[in-house]
Description:
Layout: E1 2-5, H1 11-21, H2 29-37, E2 41-48, E3 51-59, E4 66-74, H3 83-97, E5 102-108, H4 112-120, E6 124-133, E7 138-146, H5 147-152, E8 163-164
Parallel strand pairs: 1-8, 4-5
Antiparallel strand pairs: 1-2, 2-3, 3-4, 5-7, 6-7
Helix pairs in contact: 1-2
Amino acid sequence: MSLRTATPDDLAAIMTLERASFPTDAWSDAMMREELGSPHGWYVVDEEAGNVLGYAGLRAVRGAKDADVQTIAIAETSRGRGRGRALLRALLGEAAGRGVQDVFLEVRADNPVAQALYASEGFLEVGRRPRYYQPDDVDAVVMKLDLRGWTAAGTVSADDAGVCT
């Protein structure tokens, strides 16, 4: 597992995973291109032998005290091996480096595996958004992490997670 900051050159590989992971509500190429180029975003890819096996994105406006996990996706054949946790920790490390205090995310109510991952890192459910994921009519579980507490607990930073910039 090798994590590195995503670049515009990763767009095609990211979009292949995006469409496979989120078949009914994948982002468009244009949306993802904009995210990769945004000064408020930070995306990381998990690469092995030149293949992108996962990616994750954070939206953290410089100087803001909160941030949002935009997305995490892992190739189906690579799931269950700690890659999602490594990507999440990289995002949280980047958020901490930007001075963020609270990190939010939305996760599908029908995705207990992702919910369990987030809870194991300290995220707590703070609300629900009915029928948020369309066209599937699936609720979003809104979760929040006190990043200062996560950092104080000695959880790894982006540097420790092996992100190469």
